[in-house]
Write a structure and sequence with these properties.
By secondary structure, the chain is an alpha/beta fold. The chain has 20 helices and 21 strands. The protein folds into four domains: 1-60, no CATH class; 71-156, no CATH class; 160-389, Mur-like, catalytic domain (UDP-N-acetylmuramoyl-L-alanine:D-glutamate ligase, 3-Layer(aba) Sandwich); 403-546, Protein-Tyrosine Phosphatase, Chain A (Alpha-Beta Complex). The protein is elongated and about 110 Å long.
Length: 547
């Protein structure tokens, strides 16, 4: 204007309220950077120079919104040839969304007539110059992008099956995850062993809380989530999701009572009952009809309810099916789905490796829950049958859950039974074995009530002919002497002369039992240190082969 300096003119432009720092507003403030100073120097000017009225001065050698430039919408002026050219360029590069920069004297004329050119293809174009151009009509370019990513009627959510309960959560979760992945889905699942994405363990440890669920749900490669959801995680940090499509509750028993203000089994059921209450009306709750507390959850749910039972004559199941409901039942050795007036037999339970020939009743129960969840998720009989027949319990597939090592002189079973309900079900399995001598390596847990520890040890004493009593690494507030005394007392309640040996370290206890077990024995390792125990047994097996 012939009056103000270059810097004053810049300041005047920057007074525009649409301008801000970086990308905070639709336009960016102009900065007199080194590039600007170099341009001024080339014209023998400085920021303090006053330009003649009407003279134009270029402060940048390129036109860009991020350096203070402006945008004019010319959508309605673009020649069809140039539109086709841009579409072809995007296709060549392989991008469904991109920004294409052209240099031309007139966008309304075909580029091949103006000696123009494509100078850049941007895979992450900015939207602000289109949504709020300095001149011309605003274009909502975000809307078609969102419509492409999420077509009308499509959901932005992936299917979620969540599993809770006192016992059987991990095996049920793994069975469901194996089923879903066998169909071709990219599954993320959480367990007390860790977080798995497409079969690869990415996190180790107890990962059954809300943070672990979010880890899976945020993974861009996962299109199906199966989430073990434990009491502790729910009380500490919630679920990690608002709703799930199917919620499975395996059972509720006296475990972890006295912790976090949960003192009764009924209160524990209220905690675990949070999970099925997150299921919308279109989803399903899969509940254990043999468990009074779990069965009662179905009375207050808004979603659809299906039940499973180990007893084909369970009146609850009969009443539910007669009313048009869906159920899964163990009948005549088969896993069977009941729906209305017909029944669909999946397969003989003994054909599934996880049931150990039908001897592991607790895993038949877990398979019932998993099969019912799979059926309700839309998987057919053959899919479930094939998946369950190929699910082989092992140190990699189900670490710490019924891992069986058959050595020349004896057999070793690694399991995680850690409460009275769990050890009772394991006792049923052990009674079906023909071992000449049954040895258990067990411990008491410091965060259990004394009566729970006593009940657990009493059942252990009934199962085994010999016990090695070890100590957990974390006694959780109780002394080693106290736990040793109460465990020994429980072990000998029904067998006063039961041999009990105390070896503090778990791995030392394993070394001892491997060295002293008689021929034909079955050794049960109820482990805390799953990884260390499995490694120890693998080393023992390798040593035998080397010898």
């Amino acid at each position: 204007d012939g009056e103000r300096t270059v810097q004053q003119l810049i300041d005047k432009v920057n007074e525009d309220p649409r301008r801000g720092v970086g990308h905070e507003k639709v336009l960016t403030s102009i900065k007199a950077d080194q590039h600007t100073l170099d341009l001024l120097k080339g014209k023998e000017l400085t920021l303090d120079s006053v330009l003649p009225a009407g003279e134009t001065l270029y402060l940048k050698s390129t036109a860009n919104i991020s350096t203070g430039g402006t945008a004019t919408d010319v959508t309605d002026l673009v020649d069809p040839y140039n539109v086709l050219l841009a579409e072809r360029v995007a296709g060549i590069v392989g991008l469904d969304i991109c920004g294409i920069d052209l240099l031309t004297s007139d966008i309304a004329i075909p580029l091949n007539q103006t000696r123009g050119a494509v100078i850049e293809v941007n895979a992450a174009p900015g939207f602000r110059m289109h949504i709020s151009p300095t001149e011309g009509l605003a274009r909502n370019v975000a809307a078609p992008v969102i419509d492409m990513l999420f077509p009308p009627g499509a959901t932005a959510r992936i299917p979620i099956i969540a599993v809770t309960g006192t016992n059987g959560k991990t095996t049920t979760t793994r069975l469901i995850a194996h089923l879903v992945s066998s169909i071709g889905y990219k599954v993320g699942f959480t367990t007390t062993d860790g977080i798995y994405i497409q079969g690869v363990q990415l996190q180790k440890g107890d990962c059954t809380g809300g943070v672990s669920a979010e880890f899976v749900l945020r993974d861009p490669t996962v299109n199906y989530a199966v989430l073990e959801t434990a009491r502790g995680g729910m009380l500490r940090s919630g679920l990690g999701f608002h709703t799930c499509d199917i919620a499975v509750v395996t059972n509720v028993a006296a475990d972890h009572l006295g912790m976090r203000d949960i003192y009764t089994v009924e209160e524990m059921a209220a905690v675990k009952g949070v999970l099925p209450r997150t299921v919308p009306k279109s989803g399903w709750a899969v509940l254990n009809a043999d468990d009074d507390l779990v069965y009662d959850m179905g009375r207050t749910l808004d979603c659809k309810v299906a039940y499973f039972s180990m007893n084909e004559n369970n009146p609850r199941i009969q009443e539910h099916v007669e009313a048009g409901g869906v159920a899964a039942v163990y009948e005549e050795g088969y896993l069977t789905i009941y729906k209305n007036s017909y029944k669909l037999r999946i397969d003989r339970a003994a054909e599934f490796p996880v049931t150990f020939g039908g001897r592991a009743g607790f895993n038949i129960e877990n398979a019932l829950a998993a099969a019912l969840a799979g059926y309700l998720a839309g998987f057919d009989k053959d899919m479930i049958k094939t998946a369950f027949r190929t699910f082989v319990p092992s140190s990699t597939k189900t670490p710490g859950r019924m891992n069986v090592y058959k050595f020349p002189r004896f057999e070793v079973i690694v399991d995680y039974a850690h409460n009275t309900a769990g050890i009772n079900k394991y006792a049923d399995f052990m009674r079906a074995t023909t071992a000449t001598h049954k040895i258990g390596v067990v411990s008491g847990l410091g965060d259990r009530r004394d009566e729970d520890t006593l009940g657990f040890s009493r059942v252990a004493g009934q199962i085994f002919d010999e016990v090695i009593l070890r100590q957990d690494r974390d006694l959780r507030g109780k002394s080693a002497e106290f736990l040793q005394e109460i465990m020994t007392r429980g072990l000998r309640l029904d067998k006063p002369d039961l041999p009990v040996t105390y070896i503090e370290n778990e791995l030392d206890a394993i070394d001892h039992v491997l060295a002293t077990a008689p021929d034909g024995a079955v050794i049960t390792l109820l482990t805390e240190n799953i990884a260390g125990t499995l490694k120890k047994l693998d080393e023992y097996e390798a040593g035998l082969k080397g010898a």
